[in-house]
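Hi all, long-time lurker, first post. I run a small reading group and we've been trying to get comfortable going from sequence to structure in the token notation. Rather than ask abstract questions, I figured I'd post a concrete chain and ask someone more experienced to write out its structure so we can walk through it together at our next meeting. Sequence below, copied exactly:
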Amino acid sequence: MLDCIEIDPPAQARASVIWLHGLGADGNDFVPIIKELGLGENHGIRFVFPNAPIRPVTVNNGMPMRAWYDIKGMAIADKQDSDGIRASAHEIEALIAREAERGVDSSRIIVAGFSQGGAVALHTGVRHAKSLAGIMGLSTYLPLADTLPEQASPANRDTAIFMAHGSEDPVVPIRLGQVSREHLEAEGYSVAWHEYPMQHQVCLPQIAEIGVWLRARLAD
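-- Answer (accepted) --
Happy to help. Here is the structure in token form:
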């Protein structure tokens, strides 16, 4: 089981958000955002921020860092680390199962992530065997897209997907995100797409939109 930072709600947990950080960051990265989401005093949402394993990353001269999978070249969608992506998806599946053991049904769980974490969230969410409350990918893309038609889970064909991207992103080009959205839509998924005048980051208007989306998905 991955090491995680967990923020329990003031009331009993009735829903969960499993939120994956980006390359080289850790589970602390998005903890400060919780208080900006407008969830209310008794929201009942547990936030789980897992730490990715430390591994060498080829594009960074083999430097070990927290990474959900290896990146083998500057064009991040090329030469994809399929074994690493699938291994991380397996770890997220284990976290979803743990939330179920703690009394949170999958239909009350959102899988989310930023950048590399968002790629794993998208990959895992559309393949998960049971219906999820939502899937969120920020400044990211859909990896191993060619395997989606044969691996997609019918349970999540109608699950809401939130994607957001900066128009000036120099790390994950916005066109890569747009192509991923188009690929998902071509497969029948409904994607709420948001663009912001920013680089590889999050911004306050985006956080506000995320809060609205989370509240709609996880309302009691």
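A couple of things your group might point at:
The chain has one domain: 4-218.
The first helix runs from residue 82 to 101.
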